[in-house]
Amino acid sequence: xxxxxxxxxxxxxxxxxxxxxxxxxxxxxxxxxxxxxxxxxxxxxxxxxxxxxxxxxxxxxxxxxxxxxxxxxxxxxxxxxxxxxxxxxxxxxxxxxxxxxxxxxxxxxxxxxxxxxxxxxxxxxxxxxxxxxxxxxxxxxxxxxxxxxxxxxxxxxxxxxxxxxxxxxxxx
Length: 172
Hints:
This protein has eight helices and five strands. By secondary structure, the chain is an alpha+beta fold.
């Protein structure tokens, strides 16, 4: 049984204003690194051919961030910000997180106008269908905490760390 998604949440405007001042390129590098690790090898060849040279943008509306990238035939690569990418996918941070955790259906978000695709709609549908067809693990933020990553990469070091206080998820 799945838990219902939480009510819609938007980052406060002052948080978005601060995030909007961050340089775009480093964020795009981080995003494409994650996409390459998680998705690139799973994409079908016909989808890769369709993505060849296309300019893509993920826009996090409430954070006022945009991550621009393209497929170069081998992997996704960051690019300079694009005024008119071939495909832009926009949503609030919470909605992208719900999608990654598979707690919300992209069609539901789309029809509720919380997920917006602009540009080449055929490309957008191909990308959406390709992602829907992939059997990917659900994104669990706890899997990516520094302590969890250290436990996977260097368990001997992780065992030397003191326990976390209960407020941070440790045991009382």
